Amino acid sequence: MKKEEKINYKIDSDILKNYVETINSIRMPMRKIKNQLNKPTKSEQINNISDMVNAIKELSIKYPNEQTKIYIDVIKQIMNINNGILSTRMIEPLNISRQYLSIMKKNNDIEKVSRGIYIFPSTFEDSYFLFQQKYKKVIFSHMNALYFYGMTEDFPYNYSVTVPENYHVNTVNEKCNVFYVDDDIYDIGIVEVKTPSGNKVKAYDKERCICDIIRSQGRMDPEQVKKSVKQYMQSKDKNMAKLSDYAKKMGISKKVMEMVGAYYE
Q1: Nearest to 201 by CA among 260, 150, 127
Q2: Rounded distance between C-alpha atoms, residue 112 and residue 186, angstroms
Q3: Which residues, including other chains, have CB under 8 Å from residue 208's CB and lie 6 or more apart?
Q4: Number of domains the chain is built from
Q5: Residues 58, 101: one domain?
Q6: How many CB atoms lie within 10 A of CB 17?
Q7: 93, 145, 241, 249: which has the fewest Cβ within 10 Å?
Q8: Residues 166, 155: contact at Cβ < 8 Å?
């Protein structure tokens, strides 16, 4: 008897990787993303999303009676690239209904860990990564970010995050030390760092963190602020030009320079 041919629903690895990286980094509202997809001229990020949409369309045309299998396989491929984690935002621009997540959950292929967040049963739960998958605009900051850099020994039991001044989500306020900033300084110093579990999250770089803890020292442990500033000033990779530039943009040059000057070598 002839063996049944195994159908391959695989998406090109470059298309898949570019899509996951884009959807994780883009902060544009989903409605705007979908509108941009229909325009003839697209940005690189929108093109990455469009390539993924077209790849799925091609599979649907090639296998017209296999839509459920295609969508479930695509979801699994996305999760494999994304460290076994999926937010519902990752399937929205692909026009994949959430009913397929319900099917996968019923079949024990995935587990729901919070609203809009799913993981493979074998995936280790990285709370930092999951949190930022859910709240895309939060940037890990202050002592929380310094913890990622090994610049504080205190474990951050409560997240410290920075958000734009018009971003108010009650569940974020309940779980975090939230710092609201003007839009013109929100983007300063955003980088990707690895959590202790090895997943990438957005946080502020060291220079922005030093500015932040000095700027917000009224809400911080003063001794911990001094320790972190001293450690930064004694580090070989400090960037004083960047620190000065950030402080100037944030309107705290005098305050920052006075404090770091105490530890300047």
Answers
A1: 127
A2: 31
A3: 141, 188, 189, 190, 246
A4: 2
A5: yes
A6: 13
A7: 241
A8: no
Listed in sequence order, the residues at least 6 apart from 151 whose beta carbon sits closer than 8 Å to its beta carbon are 206, 209, 228, 231, 232
Residue, of 186 and 218, whose pLDDT is higher: 186
Asked whether residue 134 falls in the same domain as residue 163, the answer is yes
* 112 SS3 class: strand
Query: Does the residue 176 lie in any domain?
Result: yes
Amino acid making up residue 163: V
Contact 69, 9 (CB under 8 A): yes
Backbone dihedral angles phi then psi of residue 163, each to the nearest 5 degrees: -140, 160
* Same-domain status, 136 and 257: yes
Q: What is the pLDDT of residues 104-141, one digit of tens each?
A: 999 999 999 888 889 999 888 888 888 888 888 899 99
Polymer length in residues for the chain: 265
C-alpha 70/C-alpha 228 separation (Å) is 50
Its domain, for residue 157, covers: 129-261
Rg of the chain, C-alpha, whole Å: 22
DSSP 131-154: HHHHSTT-EE-HHHHHHHTT---S
Residue 78 structure tokens: 């996305």
Q: Are residues 106 and 171 in the same domain?
A: no
Q: Can you tell me which residue has the tokens 């999926």?
A: 86
